[in-house]
Amino acid sequence: MSLQIRNLTKIYGQQRAVHNISFEVAEGEIVGFLGPNGAGKSTTMKIATCFLPPTEGEVRVAGYDVTDSPMKVKSVTGYLPEHNPLYLDMYVHEYLSFIGRLYGLSGTALKQQVGDMVERCGLTREQNKKIEALSKGYRQRVGLAQALIHNPKVLILDEPTSGLDPNQLVEIRKLIKEISQQKTVIFSTHILQEVQALCNRVVVINRGEIVADDTVDRLMQRQGDTVTVIAEFEQGVSVEQLQQLAGVIQVKQLGAGKFSVVAARGADVRPALFRFAADNNLSLIGLKQEETSLESIFHSLTAPSAVEHNQN
Ligand code: ADP
User: In terms of pTM, does the model score above 0.85?
Assistant: First the structure.
């Protein structure tokens, strides 16, 4: 196992940030660590990278315990913290050499490793610039390069794409995908499409507790209690008329002639809507069942009203 977290609890003063969580990440996996703000993601990542001690529980990275062998853990872990702290007045090349030396690299090995990281992270043209002169996207590349400089087995990335513009976001995602071919990667994000694009597994944390740990596919198959159908008529139809149909729980008007029709799962209201249109001589110009999105699953797992349900 690349990462083993067992019964981890972290308490800051009076604040319990992480409560008795356990999960494992196997070698070569790329896992999305999801949760709303304040859920405990950064705290868990800081403990796994030896930036903070656990209050209780056990965390092992590549077999090394974070409490007993922090230097070993650091030697096998690359970490890109949230907000990417960089020395802005250093040059890119100079900064990467500095970080490489901190990890014990020197001479040709250091030169080669810095050169490789510059190339791999797309920094060739920027390597002689001061970090303060770089855009946010290039600063993230420098952050990834420093996390990779000592060729770690496990890469822990805390919101690596936050604050990037859409083009930078695509490039950094591509880079993470490439890196993940050879490493175990755990990254936190708020962007659910990113999880779908990059990972095969997600761990969802809410209020310091794990509320889901599954493959993206299986999570997508989790279904709520209702299904929503979007129906669009050419002519005016009232909400009340649609509410009369068998199986319908709720109707909302979305626009002229357009409605969202909520029904209990298992009760397919599409034939009823079709018959309603035919019987009333109406033109039904759209009828589509909404797919369960990762967003709606995430919401159902982490919305304040879901907490009580999840804790039962
Ligand atoms: P996330 O990364 O999911 O946004 P964090 O791990 O940063 O969550 O925070 C989890 C909880 O711990 C939050 O309630 C946060 O306010 C609290 N917290 C984080 N760091 C500290 C700290 N140094 N001292 C006190 N409370 C903290």
Answer: no
